[in-house]
Amino acid sequence: MVLFGVLVVFQTLSLPGQFAYMAQESPEDAYLRWPATAVTVFWVLCVQVVIVATWKLLSLVKNDRIFTEASLKWVDLIVWAIGAGWVVLVGVFLYVGFNADDPGVPLLLFLLTVGVSVLGLLMVVMRALLRQATTLRTDMEAVI
Asked: 131 and 67 in contact (C-beta within 8 Å)?
């Protein structure tokens, strides 16, 4: 809950204020203020979606209802949030890659893109495993 609150503060105060300050200090890059603010706030929103969905999944585990169809919608939400963040990250990577003078930032963005790709693929595999386990549990309950 505390992490979610900190992320809300980042979304509403810290990130917009940081990019406003950067625009003041570097007027030649001021045109990036609003796109950078929108992108970073969107990424924080994606993280918030993952946190809420994980919290709901943990409550389903606590109530021994993780192997039900209800859990699949929360895992789907996590996969979609990671996918949406990945698409925007690839867009930022391409924009920076084509406009950068120094290879440092594009390499960092490439590493982040690979990391988010692996995380997304892992979630797709975990979703398939959850679906199989849910089907097996439903079949077992029908037999018993």
From this structure: no
